[in-house]
Design goal:
The complex is a heterodimer.
Chain A: H1 3-15, E1 29-34, E2 41-49, E3 52-61, H2 64-77, H3 82-96, H4 120-135
Antiparallel strand pairs in A: 1-2, 2-3
Helix pairs in contact in A: 1-2, 2-4, 3-4
Chain B: E1 14-15, H1 26-38, H2 49-69, E2 76-79, H3 82-97, E3 103-107, H4 116-125, E4 128-132, H5 142-148, E5 153-159, H6 171-180, E6 184-188, E7 207-211, E8 222-226, H7 228-231, E9 244-247, E10 253-255, H8 269-285, H9 287-305, E11 311-313, E12 322-327, H10 332-341, E13 344-345, E14 347-349, H11 357-360, E15 365-369, H12 376-387, H13 392-396
Parallel strand pairs in B: 1-13, 3-4, 3-5, 5-6, 6-7
Antiparallel strand pairs in B: 2-8, 7-8, 9-10, 11-12, 12-15, 14-15
Helix pairs in contact in B: 1-8, 2-8, 3-4, 9-12
The chains are: A alpha+beta, B alpha/beta.
């Protein structure tokens, strides 16, 4: 991927992320996620209806990578079924962790396919958060 | 100064994260290697040559600590670090001597290890934590402490030098005040003992905690110094080998004397020896010289950086080698990643001082923390990189 294009996508999503700001609504699943290796601290909320992700919102303080990854992740997951979401998250985590993954499933999330080792936890943060909320469904 | 003593400085780095941990001089590393290569043995149990040698070196570090910070050697307890020391004070002494409703004065510039143990103790026995407000420079003053003292105040617990703002608290005056009012004075020396002359006795300190690795020593070792009459009333938090005289089937037991009774199990022997070497090394340079130099470095940085208009410094005035800042509108971690690109090592985050946000209004900062081996040239490089910060995202993404 062209480096300027990659940077542009990340910075656009960092500067003006999708669905920043939480709302009062008890029908949402909620979680707070701190990245393990850095100082990102984001709150997430997700609405699932008819086995489909209807909405994901977030707020908090985080670095350019975490914030942009959250924004792109939200855009990628809304409207998908829980099974599809799980598949995307698994492939995304595999990509970040240098394992085999299906590029076709990830769309814009592919901008993180060459992430530096010390930023991996930042990039993984939204997937950890969504997984945590999905675990609550059980 | 003394850069040639530090093998890590031969790597191509500029190391400004000394508040987190310092680099180690070769003499410290050599002393530990010598223990492992020439006289490995446990302490206080062997009758052979290597064990005698180890015992001598190990025990002598109490005397060195006493000389270094002006206390008696038998008031010195080896721990794993300042965190363990502070926990021993809270759960070994305070838990037994405080009662429900007693007030402990903290402030929001304190490190987690001087807040969370108190929160836990509050949960356990109902002590009340009060946070002394910081002044307009986010510094802690005796005047503000006095305003918070009531008849129920039993403890003042503070960092001698705070780890984000870097203000040097006037422990002599605060200690005298605490002493005169029969309030216990607990001091976290993690950021002061490595950088300046600390006087345990003349500051009326009751308990003093610090870590080896922040003062040229190894990780895994620290010190708790306690006033001897208070140590007599303190209970061990850990029980096991090395700290007892006997124990019997009927549950009777007798513990050893102070300080051994607080050191259950095999201690970090190599690390204690290494810490002793670090103390000798620091004393040979001179603590006043170290402190003065670090303050000069800080002033030099602040003077140079003031022309960069999007740098916000939160602690211009404090009298230490700690500088906390942000590039405006840039997340602290992104700045740290940017500086890393130029091999400049700094720390970004809340620095375990998670309540300070209530005072300074932001959660995260970039922290540059100096030591005596830093140079004016290194600061020049840092300032130059900060000047070019409009390139930051090109560099980090």
């Amino acid at each position: 991927m062209d480096e300027n294009f990659r940077r542009e996508i990340i910075l656009d999503n960092y500067g003006d992320p999708m669905n920043r700001g939480l709302i009062e609504d008890d029908s949402y699943l909620k979680t707070r996620t701190n990245s393990e290796s850095c100082i990102d601290d984001l709150n997430f909320m997700m609405k699932i209806e008819d086995n489909t992700v209807k909405d994901i919102r977030f707020d908090g303080e985080a670095c350019a990578i975490s914030t942009s990854a959250t924004s792109i992740m939200i855009r990628s997951l809304i409207g998908k079924s829980v099974a599809e979401v799980k598949k995307i998250l698994l492939n995304y985590q595999n990509m970040i962790n240098d394992k085999e993954y299906d590029k076709e499933l990830l769309g814009e999330l592919n901008v993180y396919d060459n992430i530096q080792p010390n930023r991996k936890n930042c990039a993984l943060l939204p997937s950890v958060a969504v997984n945590k909320m999905l675990d609550e469904l059980k | 100064m003394n850069r040639e003593d530090f093998p890590m400085l031969k790597e191509d780095i500029i190391y400004f994260d000394n508040g987190a941990t310092t680099l180690k001089p070769k003499v410290v590393i050599d002393s530990m290697n010598k223990y492992y290569l020439k006289h490995t043995s446990n302490i206080h149990r062997g009758d052979y040559e290597a064990a005698v040698k180890t015992n001598e070196l190990y025990d002598d570090v109490r005397r060195l600590v006493g000389e270094f910070i002006n206390c008696d050697g038998n008031e010195v307890i080896y721990t794993s670090g300042a965190t363990m020391s502070l926990n021993m004070v809270v759960f070994g002494y305070m838990k037994k001597h405080l009662k429900k409703g007693d007030e402990v004065l903290l402030n929001k510039g304190e490190h987690a290890s001087n807040v969370l143990p108190w929160i836990k103790l509050s949960e356990e026995i109902g002590i009340v934590i009060k946070y002394v407000p910081l002044n307009k420079n986010y510094e802690l003053t005796l005047d503000n402490i006095k305003k918070c003292v009531t008849k129920k105040t039993k403890v003042i617990s503070l960092a001698h030098v705070s780890n984000v703002i870097g203000d040097v608290r006037d422990v002599k005056k605060i200690g005298k005040f605490a002493h005169d009012n029969k309030i216990l004075f607990n001091v976290d020396g993690a950021q002061s003992v490595p950088h300046m002359k600390v006087d345990f006795k003349n500051s009326y300190i009751d308990f003093l905690s610090f870590s080896g690795h922040k003062m040229c020593g190894p990780t895994g070792v620290g010190i708790l110094v306690g006033r001897y009459d208070l140590l007599k009333e303190m209970e061990p938090v850990f029980y096991g080998g090395g700290m007892n005289n006997y124990f019997e089937e009927d549950n009777s037991y007798e513990l050893k004397n102070i300080p051994t009774k607080f050191e259950a199990g095999t201690p970090p022997i190599a690390e204690v020896i290494g810490l002793g070497e670090a103390i000798k090394y620091l004393m040979s340079i001179g603590m006043d010289k170290i402190h003065d130099y670090e303050v000069e470095l800080k002033k030099y940085f602040i003077n140079k950086v003031k022309d960069i208009n999007n740098i916000v410094i939160y602690n211009n005035n404090s009298d230490s080698g700690i500088i906390s800042f942000n590039i405006k509108d840039i997340f602290a971690q992104d700045t740290a990643v940017y500086l890393n690109h130029y091999n400049i090592c700094v720390r970004a985050g809340n620095h375990c001082t998670k309540l300070l946000k209530d005072e300074i209004g932001i959660k995260n900062t970039v922290r540059v923390s100096m030591y005596f081996y830093n140079t004016y040239e290194e600061i020049d490089k840092l300032v130059e990189v900060l000047k070019n910060n409009n390139d930051i995202y090109k560099v980090i993404i």
